[in-house]
Write a structure and sequence with these properties.
104 residues; two-stranded antiparallel ribbon
Length: 104
């Protein structure tokens, strides 16, 4: 069972639920099989890190994955989240903003 993920790496997204609700950030990495994404500065946790050969130990901030269903593409012009649709243009599939119809 594989569901198509419409978001891509580098997209600006807004968080819909959770402790970071309403915050925006850029997608850094996507895990399609887990249906999760890592968003910069979102869902940060403190983690105790053991010292390694090339880095010291201590408490570090780490971005944790957040489920795709809790993210929505952010449109800076409208200043809100928008749904993504697809359209065929010269046999090429392009992503569009469903509310305005503009290409992403």
């Amino acid at each position: 069972m594989s569901i198509k993920i419409k978001l891509k790496k580098g997209d600006d997204v807004i968080v819909l639920t959770g402790k970071d609700k309403g915050k925006t950030g850029k997608i850094v990495k996507i895990f399609p099989k887990l249906m999760k994404a890592i968003v910069s500065e979102i869902n940060r946790v403190k983690k105790n890190q053991k010292p390694d050969n090339n880095q010291p130990g201590g408490i570090i901030d780490k971005d944790m994955p957040i489920h795709i269903s809790n993210l929505l593409l952010y449109d800076p012009e409208l200043k809100k989240g928008v749904k993504i649709g697809f359209k065929l243009d010269n046999n090429k599939k392009i992503r569009i903003n469903k509310s305005s119809g503009k290409e992403i």
